[in-house]
Structure prediction request, 337 residues.
Amino acid sequence: MSYPRISVVMSVYNGERFLKKAIQSVLAQTCANFEFIIIDDGCSPKSKQTIDNFKDQRIVRLDNQKNIGLSASLNKGIALAKGEYVIRMDADDLCLPDRFQTQINFMDAHPEIDICGSWAKKIGHGTSYIIKQPINHESIKAGLIFRATLIHPSVIIRKTSWKKYGLAYNPSFKKAQDYELWTRAVKNCRFANIPKVLLHYRKKAKTHSFDINGNSKMYSINIRLRLLKELGLNPTKKEIELHQNISHFKIKGQLNNIRDCENWLTKINQSNNQLGLYDNTALKQLLAERWYSLCHSNTSLGLALWKNYHRSTMRLNLKSNFIRQIKEIKLFSKSII
Prediction:
C-alpha cells in the first residue's frame, strides 16, 4: 500500500468566509501527492457545506463531536497523518502553488532539519507586507526569547521527528499554542525557515473575549517567563512587563525607559554567557537588533537618545560593521531632525 508523502492538517472552526479559497490553494499545489486532513471542530453549517462541496479524493474529513479547540484538533489530525511530512494550514490563509514542492525539496536536501517554516505575506484588514523570519536554527532559537520565530501555518514537520521526540500541542493553551510548542521542540529538534514567501498569512481579527480578560496576552507572557527562568533569570514584575514591551516594540517616551531596556538586554546576555543555552553570536546579534529598533522608534528624544545609543557597547554586536554604520547614520539623522 502506497502512502502520500505529505499530510496537510487543517482545523476548521467558524472560518467559512475564507475557507473555500484556502482549500482551493491546497488542492491546486504543483505537488499532488498528499492527503488533506480537515478537522471539523464544531464549525458552522456553511463551513460544513463548503467542505462537502469539494469532491477531491485526497480530502480526509474528521468530525469532532464537539468543539475541542485547535491544539487538541491538531494533535488528533497529526496522529492520524500517514505522510512522511506534515504540513500545517489554516482555514483563512492561502498557499502559493509551489509551497509543498519547495518545502519537500528543502527537507529532502536537509535531513538534519526537523521543522521548517517560510516567509509569508501578511494580508487582510488593509495589510500587505512581508514577514521575514530568521533563517538558521541558532537565530530562530534565540529569537524565541521574544516571539514565535516560525509562522505556524507555514511549517512542514518531519513525522518521524514528531513521534521520536513525543511532540504535541499543549491543549491547555487556547492561544499561542505554536509558540509554546516551538519552545519545547527546540530542545531536541533543528529548525529552519525558507527565505521565500510560500504563504499569504491573513491578519486575524482580535477576539473580543480574549481582549477583555487578557488571557491571550497571558499565554505569551507565561511562555517568555519560562524561557527567562531557564536562563537563570528571576525577573521582577517590572522586568516581566519590560520584556513583554520589548517583545512587541512598545517602549516609548522617556530616556530612562530606553536605559532600562539596555540594562535588561545586557542582563539576558550575561545570563547566557554563564549558562550557554543559546548560541552566543546569534543571541548578541538578536539583542543588538532589538536595541537598535527600540532606539530607532524613539528618535523623538533627540540627541540625548543618540548619545545613549552610541555609548552602548551593545551596538557593536550588529551583524557587520557596514550594516552598523548604515543603521547609525539613519539613527543619527532622525535624532537631529
